[in-house]
Each structure stands twice: as structure tokens, then as C-alpha cells.
Amino acid sequence: MNNTFTEMHEENGIITHVCSCNSITIYETRRDNCKFDRESVYFLCGPTDGKPSLYIGKGKDDRPKSNSEKINYEDVFAITIGEGLNESQKDYLERHFIKKYKDDKRFNTVNGNTPSEKNISRIDKDACIKTIETVSDFIDRKLDIIYRYSKPDIIKNNLPVVEIENEKPTNSFICKGKNSKAYGISVGNNEWKVFSGSTFRKELTPIVEKNGRKEIRDNLIHDGILIDNGNENYSLFKDYVFNSSSQAASLILGGQYSGPEVWIREEDGKQLKDCKS
Asked: DSSP letters along 232-272, please?
């Protein structure tokens, strides 16, 4: 995501990302919560007939729900500026994103014809261009994740399943606990790589809430690296290197843990502390 997004909070199932430097806001939610209090351009995303599909619309309140017959959507994103987009801004942004994603052959964009170009003032156009520059990385990343999950071979019970990205080395370690199971390996300088497909417990103990590690996890969620599985854990979308085995273990298990004690080598069951470097 563009690094100018400096605020994130969640309320009633809607995650709000705020770019404080130019009043751009992105809402992120699921189908059951798609109701926005400001005029926005929104994206409805999900698998339809085994193919990743996308619908782009405009409006506020529960307007996205009126499109439920057009697309079997689960994920919703919405973009707005300040107290809400005006009509010219909505038209411009809707047309831009429909045209862009109709050209992206990964998706079945179900909007029909691209809207015709309409007159827009220079001020409104400049605001739209700035918005596109700010949000494009975020939207592209989220849609890439949805595309990967929409493939039939990795859909299970309508929830995303992240598979191990690379074959694990023979000397890999495992760390597991309640609602968590992860694989990792030392990569030098005390750093610790955790492999994609590993699961992280959602619940955190109070000490993790206070010692700064919750902020690390929040950033991973924010950047689309940790994905909500819809139950009691998160999945790691891609391999990630943590500062230490203890940092990784604490985030995986949801508490304060010593990595050398809880990482176990698979081939012989030895704790990390008992293994030679």
C-alpha cells in the first residue's frame, strides 16, 4: 500500500484506511457489512462460476447490495475523498477503474460497457488523478490476493486457503499451538524466515498487546501479508522474515515465547536451542 496511509481502524466489521495528507479514505469489508456513509466508488469481488469476478459501482449506504444479482461477491472495497465524492468525481473514477480492469484478463468484470467520458472540472479531475495514484497499489494488491483465492483448486468452504509457496528445506523447524502452525528456518543475523501457508493465532495475550508486537501484526494485516481465514487464525500469504525466532513465535502463538524453546526441528524433534548453527 502507498506509505502515505497513516491511519487504520476497524469498527462494526469495516476496516478504514485513511491517507491523512489528502483526505483519501478506503473502506474494506465483507458482503454482510457493505454499507458506507459517504458517496464512494466501490469494488465488489469474489468467485463466480469458478472465475474471479469484479463489479465496480458508485453510491453510498447499502447501494452495493443492489448489485448482488450481478456478481457473487464476498469482498468489498470503497474509495472516497473527504466527506464524499461528488457526481463528477464518481463518474470519473468509476469509468477509470472499469476500463482498467476490463483490460485485466484475470477478472470477469461484469459491468457491461465502459461508461462514456463526461465533462469534469480541472479541480475535480486533479483530485481524481491524485486518488488513483494513491489507491492503485492497495487495490491491485487486494485484487491479486482475491484472484489467487478464486481459483477452484484453492477454494475450501468459501474461505481462502494459502498454500506453502516453496517446498520446505529438510532442516526446517515447526512451531505450533492453539489455532496456529508454522514452519520456519534461520536465515542468518538472528533473523527468522516463516514460510507462506503458516497460520497465526488471532487471540493475543495482554503482554503482546503492549510490547509493540501487535503493531507488527497489524502492519502485516494492513499490507495483505497476513490474511484473515474467517475463523480463529490468519494465514501467511508469502514467506516473511522476522527479526528473530522469538518475535516470529510470539506472533504465531499469540503470546510471549522464547523462539529457541518453541521452534522444533522436524527431522529429529530437537529444540532450536539444542541445534548447532
From this structure: SEEEESS-EEES-HHHHHHHHHTS---HHHH-EETTT--BG
- C-alpha to C-alpha distance for 214 and 20, rounded to whole angstroms: 22
Give the contacts of 164 (CB within 8 A, at least 6 positions apart).
183, 195, 196, 197
Name residue, grid cell 454499507: 35
Averaged over successive runs of 10 residues, the pLDDT of the chain (277 residues) comes to 57 77 82 82 78 85 72 84 93 93 80 88 94 84 66 40 49 90 89 90 84 85 78 83 94 93 90 81
Any idea what the Cα angle at residue 195 is, between residues 193 and 201, rounded to 5°? Answer: 100
Cβ–Cβ contacts within 10 Å for residue 207, how many? Answer: 12
Q: How far apart are CA 128 and CA 115, in angstroms?
A: 16
Q: Which of 258, 252, 186, 175 is nearest to 213 (CA)?
A: 252
Cα–Cα dist 236/242, whole Å: 12
> pLDDT tens digit string along 226-249?
887 767 888 887 788 999 999 999
Per the CB < 8 A criterion, the answer to whether 67 and 57 are in contact is: yes
List the beta bridge partners of residue 240. 194
Interatomic CA distance for residues 161 and 159, integer angstroms = 6
- Can you give the pTM of this predicted structure? 0.56
Element (H, E) at 177: strand 173-177
